[in-house]
From TrEMBL:
PANTHER family: CHAPERONE SURA (PTHR47637). This is Parvulin-like PPIase. Keywords: Isomerase, Rotamase, Signal. Pfam families: Rotamase, SurA_N_3. The keyword Signal applies. Residues 1-25 form the signal peptide. The keyword Cell membrane does not apply. It comes from Rhodovulum visakhapatnamense. Residues 171-269 form the PpiC domain.
């Protein structure tokens, strides 16, 4: 139950917990600094508290990496809120804590007792919630006034979600170009963000975007100037779809943060396709991982596997972590995985998730359609959803910029 609490509440609070590098050995006493973020310390105590808290919220892999990067992000969020003069009132904090606890069918007192049994203090819980609330207000203040959702965009969203039967309406498809910049190390990420911001602000034509894609992109689409084929909008990750909908033809998105890449999109065209099926609710996919492998090795795996089920034969006798197969809701997919799956049909593969540490064969096994429910469409709910998706995309890029500009150092 608590695992679901963490995932749901983290999404509501826009708390992004992404990985950092390396295991962390404690040095000094509990209140000795573990790391400095713009000269503000993260202590060993805070690190230990966050690790214990994450164990309650689902015990993610590489938990020390997740904990430290989450604390770094929290420092950056709170620093930016302080810089902008944004504060979280006691009433807002109380409501945020109540909402978090209620997702586990608990009140705040019960939740505090529960985490206390695991050694997590109420203060650590308050800090966790406060960071998310402050960041939400920061993003709304910076991007809210210019984030508008038009009636036409609501129409397209409703049409994209419609499915099956004579009442089905048109779906939205987009024609995009992409520039994918390598960002699988801190140095590459810093340089990629700087380049992406420069390109986003300077590219003013399709030809200029294509030239930049050929020069800088590491995607397989680089030889086509970054051009991709028509793609249903419903296949894109929600935060990416929100940014794409905000673009006019020929316009370039702000840099979009992925696990191992920074991505720019240019919208070339948009159309309604009455033949499109229902919106995808979940996807079944597989990742075959080759540590230290090359693209050639990944392609050999593909030659031995026509379907996802064939990958089990390829993986026979190998460590179980070499083959990962799972079914996940579209909204819960990692952004880089979602982006690649959006390009694939059943049993097609992508090699784009590979990096210097491993080659990866990503195969789409199948999609589960969301047939929707009968009844009237709540257009205001659709508007709020699109607004939230768009803000989430802006928030990711905003935090990535803050991290790229921050001075993060060990004592």
């Amino acid at each position: 139950m608590i695992g679901r609490v963490g995932l749901a509440a983290a999404a509501v609070a826009i708390l992004v917990l992404s990985g950092a590098d390396g295991s962390m050995a404690q040095q000094g006493g509990p209140f000795a600094p573990r790391l400095f973020v713009n000269d503000k310390a993260i202590t060993n105590y805070e690190m230990d508290q966050r690790i214990q808290f994450l164990r309650l919220l689902g015990n993610p892999p590489d938990i020390e990496k997740v904990a430290l990067d989450g604390l770094i992000d929290d420092r950056l969020r709170l620093d930016e809120a302080e810089r902008l003069g944004i504060t979280v009132s006691d009433e807002q904090l109380k409501e945020g804590m109540e909402e978090f606890a209620a997702r586990g069918d608990l009140d705040v007192d019960q939740f505090v007792v529960l985490i206390g049994q695991a050694g997590v203090s109420e203060e650590s819980f308050r800090d966790f919630v406060k960071s998310g609330l402050a960041w939400r207000e920061v993003v709304r203040a910076k991007y809210g006034p210019r984030t508008q959702v038009t009636d036409a965009e609501i129409d397209r969203a409703v049409q994209s979600a419609a499915g099956g039967g004579p009442a089905a309406t048109a779906g939205t498809q987009v024609l995009l170009s992409e520039i994918v910049l390598r960002a699988d190390t801190p140095d590459y990420r810093r340089d990629a963000l700087a380049l992406a911001r420069q390109l986003s602000g300077s590219i003013d034509s399709a030809d200029a975007f294509a030239a930049a894609a050929r020069k800088y992109s590491v995607s397989r689409s680089r030889d086509q100037g970054g051009r991709m084929g028509w793609m249903p909008l419903s296949k894109l990750p929600p935060s990416v779809a929100g940014q794409v909908l905000a673009l006019g033809p020929g316009k370039v998105s702000e840099p979009i943060e992925m696990d191992n890449a920074i991505v720019l999109f240019q919208l070339r065209s948009i159309r309604e396709d009455r033949a499109e099926g229902p919106k995808t609710a979940a996807v079944d996919y597989a990742k075959f991982i080759i540590p230290g492998g090359t693209l050639a090795q990944a392609m050999k795996v593909r030659m031995r596997a026509d379907t996802c089920d064939d990958l089990y034969g390829v993986a026979r006798g190998l460590p179980p972590e070499r083959l990962v197969r799972e079914t996940r809701q579209v909204a819960d997919l990692p952004p880089d995985v979602a982006q690649e799956l959006a390009k694939l049909d059943d049993n097609e593969v992508s090699y784009a998730l590979g990096n210097a540490r491993a080659a990866v064969v990503l195969m789409l096994c199948g999609r589960t359609p969301d047939l929707g429910e009968d009844g009237a469409i709540d257009r205001e709910a659709v508007r709020r959803q699109l607004f939230g998706q768009r803000l989430a995309g802006y928030a990711d890029s905003y935090l990535a910029e803050l991290k790229a500009d921050a001075i993060i150092r060990e004592p």
